[in-house]
Write a structure and sequence with these properties.
heterodimer; A: alpha/beta; Nucleotidyltransferase, domain 5; 2 domains; five-stranded mixed beta sheet; 5 helices; 7 strands; B: 135 residues; alpha/beta; 3 helices; 37% helix
Chain lengths: 155, 135
């Protein structure tokens, strides 16, 4: 009786041993990959959260020459462009449209004739409207563009 | 001739390897394409422009949010005290570059006022941060 029980117990433990060994062998293949995948996932999440895809550019607001007040004599003249609320444009005192303004600036930029442009935004004009106007002037051929406020305008 | 018994181990690996490949590709993509920049607690969206100029050097950044005081190097600065702060910075290095990061919705005259103060203080290089427009 005792002997039979002993034999049954031995065969049972042997079976368990072989099973765990099987499981161990099967798992060994993954054990190498799992921590690596964990680390790679953490790195991936880190870079996804931290990276920034904004395409940042700049506009030069103060060229070195403008800061020193030099070279103004090289330009034939200064053209005042005013922009009011709602994008109302005004060149040298005359109302104009975006298309007309672009044409006029392009005509003035032909050959050696160089004009300096002064942009004066009115009250309530947003920075985006002014930056868009600067883009328009630059793309029409204006080389020197400066911003100015109405005299005495305090913010 | 001996034929090797089919190995069960392979089946386990095969499901993981393509995923690891894809994850690696994604990781490399984000590492190469993304840039790590310090996050800003202020909600400032710069104006959109077609300008293709890229900032050179390491400028001092002045942040002008749509509402609230402007920030210069993590410190709030009042417009009345701005010229003194700029003068102090220029005294350390007269060639210092400055960059304004202003919200697109602020009044343009507010920015011009700040620019006038900087110019009078003797700033030689000043740029306005913009976001590149999709053509």
């Amino acid at each position: 009786m005792n002997r039979r029980l002993n034999m049954a117990l031995t065969s049972f433990t042997q079976r368990i041993d072989s099973r765990t060994e099987d499981a161990f062998r099967r798992r060994r293949a993954m054990v190498i990959l799992t921590p690596l995948v964990d680390v790679v996932f953490i790195l991936l999440v880190f870079f996804m959260l931290v990276s920034n895809f904004n395409d940042a550019r700049v506009i030069n607001m103060l060229t070195p020459t403008a800061a020193k007040g030099e070279k103004a004599a090289e330009y034939l003249g200064v053209v005042l462009i005013r922009i009011g609320q709602g994008g109302a444009l005004n060149i040298s005192g005359l109302p104009t449209t975006e298309v007309q303004l672009a044409q006029e600036v392009a005509q003035r930029s032909v050959g050696d004739t160089k004009y300096s442009y002064l942009v004066q935004p009115g009250r309530g004009v947003s920075l985006q409207e002014v930056v868009s106007l600067l883009d328009l002037l630059k793309s029409s051929g204006a080389q020197s563009v400066a911003l100015t406020r109405k005299p005495g305008y305090e913010n | 001739m001996r034929i090797n018994p089919p190995q069960e181990d392979h089946r386990v690996e095969v499901t993981v390897v393509p995923m690891v490949n894809v994850v690696f590709l994604l990781l490399i993509f984000f590492m190469l394409v993304g840039r790590i920049v310090p996050t800003n607690e202020l909600d400032v969206s710069p104006p959109i422009s077609y300008s293709s100029q890229v900032q050179s050097g390491e400028p001092i950044r002045i942040i002008v949010p749509a509402d609230g005081p402007m920030i210069l190097e993590d410190n709030e600065v009042d417009i009345a005290a701005l010229d003194q702060v700029i003068l102090d910075l220029l005294q350390q290095d007269p060639e210092r570059q400055f960059q304004i990061k202003a919200d697109a919705e602020i009044e343009a005259n507010r920015l011009i006022h700040i620019m006038e103060i900087l110019r009078q203080a003797g700033v030689r290089e000043l740029t306005l941060l913009t976001e590149h427009a999709v053509q």
